[in-house]
Amino acid sequence: MTAYAAPVTAYQRASFERPVARRASRPARRLHAIDTPEARRRRRTLAAVIVAIAVAIVGPQAVAGDEPTVPVAFDTYTVAAGETLWSIAAALTPTGDDVNETIGEIQALNAKESSALQAGEQILIPSLD
């Protein structure tokens, strides 16, 4: 039996040959996050839990001070028509003390930045004891 060699074109040769795949020594792997509503909800829940745990651990330390606070005794006072913060503080301030300090205490107790008062408003004043 006699074998004949038929000429093969480059195109035909490419279709018969398997391409040789080059492998890198260490292929880079990519992590693909599944972006579904359920996966997003899980990620948000996980983030909220982590933040809640961090706040529970760090929160009390951020608020607590090193020095014990002195309890402040106070009374409630109803502002009459025509009264000002100065007149109230002057009535509360002992003789020889600064009225401005008493005004500052009243403003601090009531978290007020200004000295504006309205008739009928109830404010906290330092205890008269």
From TrEMBL:
Q: Where are the transmembrane segments?
A: 46-64
Q: Which InterPro entries match?
A: LysM, LysM_dom_sf
Q: Where is the LysM domain?
A: 75-125
Organism per entry: Demequina litorisediminis
Give the taxonomic lineage as stored in the record.
Bacteria, Bacillati, Actinomycetota, Actinomycetes, Micrococcales
Alphabetically list the UniProt keywords.
Membrane, Transmembrane, Transmembrane helix
Name recorded for this polypeptide: LysM domain-containing protein
